[in-house]
Batch of 3 targets.
Target 1
Amino acid sequence: MPWTPQSRLIPRTLTDRIRQSARSLRPFIDRRMTGRRQRGHEIFSDLGKVVNLSPGGVRIRSIRRLHGTQTFELWARDVRVKVRAEIAWTRKTGFRRHEIGMRFVDLTTDDIVALTRLAQ
């Protein structure tokens, strides 16, 4: 029997209902405590490329997979800050490509001020 739009295994209405249900759950899935900010200019890191930065953590693209707690440096233009962060999640995005979500730990007041300047 040749393929026709009527011969699909899953009816379009069911697929549309599943997508609509998933969209309605998005506000509840995001457990972020603070907002994130994507940069107009680049922020650099010892571990890889900084994708976005928030007061609570950072997302990095790296060629290596990371585990546990990391101490690393973030910098942009005239601001430089050394921070400690624990790995919250990792995702393999390709061959030797990883995205890593990290949560900052043990930040001092000076670190918070420097991170705020980095995010501006």
Target 2
Amino acid sequence: MLKVFEKWPEGWDAHAAHRCEGVNLGTPEERKAEFRRVLGYLFRGGERPSVAPILLDQLTAFVRTLEGQVLQTTAQNKPFTIKVEEKGFVYTPSATGRARLQRFPRIQLYLDEYAQSGSLEANAYHGGSNQSYILTLLRMFKK
């Protein structure tokens, strides 16, 4: 069950502008706008974002088309390659050459969070390793 925010000791906007650790944008106004955009559906009268969910099978099929290409992370333009294996996606950053496995259940968490928030911004997600890679793939898939 989702919590509906009814009261804030300092007001929701003060929380968003100054305290919320899930909002990483610059100015207080930018922070409030991002907070409202990502979490507005939790407020009375707020509407849940209307986004089409991304199915794991669809994303996996798309990622297979990217194998062998050098991609760039959206956040820091770091080059990497991608490969689909039995257990998940394998990211190989060009800088290190060390492969990193992201298992399908973890990828599904990102897809579930995307379906809830409709956001492709890093602060809308739970974090964890490989976040910049999966968010890059989600952005590419949505284009």
Target 3
Amino acid sequence: MEYNKPHLTFEQQLTKLTERGLECPNPKRTLQMLSSVGYYRLAAYVYPFRILLPHEEQMGRRFRDDRIRPGTSWDHVEALGPSTAHSGCCVSTPLRLLK
């Protein structure tokens, strides 16, 4: 199997997120997170905000569209904890959400 996806710069990754619907009021902060955490790890925090596919379009393990629900901002994603994900602390994120 050949891997066809090209490498994207952090700026291109940010563009990809915004084209999918993520609102980034502070692009500099989002770029910092992309560079420290990484796109794919960050994608796990974006996943709950992706649009759920209609039942008839769900196939195999694909339940969500690549598009992000309207009104979702970086602040929503960050509230799930990616800002602490790179610190190696697994406890602070859930505790921060409980406050």
